[in-house]
Write a structure and sequence with these properties.
Blueprint lengths: L5 H30 L7 H5 L2 H20 L11 H24 L11 H34 L5 E6 L3 H11 L7 E8 L17 E4 L3 H8 L3 E4 L6 H12 L4 E4 L3 H5 L14 E3 L6 H21 L1 H14 L5 E7 L5 E7 L23 H9 L6 H7 L3 E3 L6 H10 L12 E3 L1 H5 L6 H16 L3 H16 L5
Parallel strand pairs: 1-2, 1-4, 2-3, 4-5, 9-10
Antiparallel strand pairs: 5-6, 7-8
Length: about 475
């Protein structure tokens, strides 16, 4: 199965648009015919109104935006019908409140039932929209589940484990209700050879190799999911594997031990599923991602516009400082390990890395005089607002590293790959608390602040980091 399922998602969004269109039309007819002091001769006469036209253009778009904010648009084939029923109910309830107070409360028409008419209007809007939307959504989800049951949609899956636990789990899966959900590509072992024979022949469930070569195996097979079926005593190896997987867009499933079950850490939503903990690569709610991205776009447009004289001044100073281009581009590693080109004002002389990648030091003689001033006040970083606008970066997030240094850090601190779960940023908690790093050891020290940022990510924390970044810039505490 491919990473994206655009046709099914487009169908789901189209169904929501159609439901919103039908619901608004029926509500408008109901309102004009039964709640207001108006004589309506026909259905078409009821909707022959400019308020209906304005609503039919704006209301469906409003609903799609609201659903997107509340994380309604994911992989259709992984959605739970019960979860979507509950999510749709409270989202439609909220949306109905918003539409009621924005469009209906101060409407010029008086309701025939007096103030009771407002209650009737709200509940009719809520119920009509909810029933039609749920009908479309549940039909699509039932269709999606049917395709999975028939084996038309299957998720490319690798199992990691070479013990009886892995073998028993595999038997449970292939003989259970969800057998068609998985397209098992093979299994990865801790040892050179499997300790137990799996429940299907190796030609159908091949041995892909050892965990030592996991990254190469992932690059070759490109799985959608990885199931970790390791012994409880292999917890250190489990953490190592999760660190490797964290920088990739892969759903991780882990067998919980009895201790975690007793502590109540294992939450199940599907009665027929195997007892597996899901670790999704999408750890931020969609509403938070949408709001954070809107802030990034708005702020970047403002900075690029308002500070354009500063950009011009800085560019002219770079041109006059030494020979070479005004801008410096460099390949960095971003979200889910994808590479992108970062933009900076050039602060060093040409060929400053002719002997290989090298981090900047205090009083680095590779910097031009103007480059030192730029780095002190971080003026060299301001072209990265273009990276933010493009979607490569965010205002706040772990600073992007070159793969050359990222691999060196991973050898000593494998959890560095957790940073690839989010977009890198122009500034970060590590940048504010620790500053620039001059070597790999300092980068590892700074890493703990960036990991803490991911664990505590919020809009309030982003604002706090931006505030302290401004202080650092004004005080000239850059390198």
């Amino acid at each position: 199965m491919s990473k994206a399922i655009p046709k099914s998602l487009l169908l789901y969004i189209f169904a929501d648009l159609l439901a919103a269109f039908i619901a608004w039309t029926l509500f408008f007819y109901f309102r004009k015919s039964f709640l207001e002091y108006q004589q309506v001769d026909s259905f078409w006469a009821a909707i022959d109104n400019w308020n209906y036209v304005y609503g039919i253009i704006s209301v469906p778009a409003f609903w799609i935006l609201l659903y997107a904010i509340f994380d309604s648009y994911g992989n259709v084939y992984r959605m739970s019908r019960l979860n979507e029923l509950m999510r749709t109910t409270y989202t439609v309830l909220l949306g109905s409140f918003i539409l009621f107070f924005v469009l209906l409360l101060n409407d010029i028409h008086y309701y025939a039932e007096g103030y009771k008419g407002y209650y009737y209007a709200f509940f009719s809007l809520f119920l009509i929209h909810l029933c039609i939307t749920l009908a479309f959504r549940l039909l699509i989800l039932e269709w999606a589940k049917g395709r999975i049951r028939k084996g038309k949609i299957r998720f490319r899956t690798i199992m990691i484990g070479s013990s009886k636990i892995a073998n028993d789990l595999h038997k449970d899966i292939v003989s259970g209700r969800n057998s068609n959900y998985y397209n098992f590509l093979g299994f990865v072992t801790v040892f050179d050879q499997p300790k137990t024979e799996f429940s299907v022949p190796l030609e159908k469930f091949p041995h892909l190799g050892k965990t030592d070569n996991l990254e190469k195996i992932l690059d070759t097979t490109k799985p959608d999911e990885v199931i970790l079926a390791l012994e409880p005593s292999e917890s250190e190896l489990t953490q190592k594997i999760i660190n490797i997987l964290s920088g990739r867009d892969i759903l991780i499933k882990v067998i919980p031990d009895m201790y975690e079950i007793l502590l109540g850490r294992v939450k199940m939503t599907n009665v027929y599923s195997e007892v597996l903990i899901e670790i999704s690569p999408q750890f931020m709610p969609v509403w938070f991602s949408v709001v954070k991205r809107l802030i990034d776009i708005t702020a970047s447009l403002l900075v690029l516009t308002i500070l354009s004289p500063l950009y011009l001044f800085t560019a002219l100073k770079v041109r006059a400082s030494s020979k070479g281009p005004i801008f410096y581009t460099q390949e960095r590693t971003g979200l889910y390990g994808k590479s992108f080109m970062i933009y900076k004002f050039r602060s060093m002389y040409l060929d400053s890395e002719k002997e290989g990648p090298k981090l900047s030091q205090d009083n680095d003689d590779r910097c031009t005089p103007w480059g030192r001033i730029m780095r002190k006040y971080r003026l060299d970083e301001i072209p990265q607002f273009w990276n933010v606008l493009k979607g490569d970066m965010s205002l706040v997030g772990p600073r992007p590293e070159r793969k050359f240094f990222l691999d060196q850090i991973a050898e000593k601190a494998p959890h560095v790959r957790h940073l690839l779960k989010v977009r890198p940023g122009i500034t970060s908690w590590g940048q504010v608390k620790y500053g620039y790093a001059s070597n790999v050891e300092e980068m590892i020290q700074r890493l703990k602040y960036d990991i803490l940022y991911i664990d505590n990510i919020s809009l309030a924390l982003d604002i706090k980091i931006l505030f302290y970044t401004v202080l650092v810039i004004l005080q000239g505490r850059g390198k």
